[in-house]
Amino acid sequence: ADQEVCEVPPSLSAKVVGSFAYLTVKDRMPTILTKVIDTLHRNKDKFFEEYGKEGIEAEKQTIALLSKLRNEMQTDKPVVPLTDGLSDAETWNRYLHGHQQSEGDQESVSWFKSPWLYVECYMYRRIQEALWLNPPISDYDVFNEGKTLSFLESQRAVMTLCTYLEDIKKKREQLSKKELFEYFRKLLQVSVWGNKCDLSISAGKDNSQKTDAVDSLCSLQPFILVDDSEVIWSALTSGKSQGPPDNSAARRLDIVLDNASFELITDLVLADFLVCTGIIHEVRFHGKSFPWFVSDVTANDFHWTIRQTMATNHRWISKCGVKWQSHLKAGVWSYHDHPFWTLPHEFCEMAAAAPDLYAALQGSDLVLFKGDLNYRKLTGDRYWDHAISFGTALRGFGPAPLCALRTLKGNTQVGLQPGEGEKLSSEEPDWMSSSKYAVIQFYNPKSEQ
Fold this sequence. Notes:
Rossmann fold, seven-stranded mixed beta sheet, metal ion binding, Sugar phosphate phosphatase
């Protein structure tokens, strides 16, 4: 059905002056680095209290490395190998070497000339390197303050959403399949619009969720460009599970997380709804193994968020938190942070680069990919024609039925109706990067066979 024969288009890159990739490398990424430097500087008393002179020295050295990194970026220097000897450094360096060989020139792999997806991931890995080379502050999360603030600023929205979930749970025995689907669709949309709260896009400026996420769904409906909710629902509720044959009813959902704070809450609420209604029996959450793209979820963020909800004095939020903790205790929920998620690879390379992760995902009934970076990695962050199918852009990636939930913040979007992308471009030149639009896009590799 979906095997359109097509040339693989080139990667988005900052080569194109004035493009979103160009503006990101030129302005947004240096701004993020400046904020990181500022955060370290502001916390130097804390480092002194904890580690004495050694802490201050480490802070100085880290800032020196990050300032050097910012300079390399702004002057379009060649990308250099990692030197921290961490377990993923060799993979990164091999990846760089592969780029240098295909370009035939070491100098040509640089900040503005190379794929935007690669250099942006590389920047976050270099931030990690700067910290790692400077114990005792190696484990410091330079983005933690922003994530915490964003969570605290979203409390009203969290309250409304948890109350809404408890309301559904009270009447779940009486709900018809059609009503269940309606609630599922709403919570799926809440989860997709939760993706607006992205701190790497606002370069760390507050953009927490202040409004009632459920109330605003109606007005946001026209901005969902692709809505495969019904197909996703039938993938979750019909037929046999991918699970072990002796337990064909046990269904598993995997959620590849994006941002911490309010977006994470929307993901936990969706997962809880699916477990409490018996639609799903196991949820595996996948996050990042170190701080990444400013607001991405790490293990620390994941567990902190659940502890915070348990400790709050709002009865429905804390009730949710207690339930979520018990899902984790019972093994119904689990958190995983495979190193592949913080590598520069497109997902079509996962089977070769991380066969263990690919095999693990094959046991899922549905893999939900949250957010923009995951979408860019799913489609390779390339200049695809907007009307090319999602399946084609995945280039063979399909461990299980999968779904992308994203608000558009980067210049790649596939699976639209012919002419729709062009029409949007003529009316709103920045439609692909303003996060005004969203997609709920499904692909089933089994339907290809």
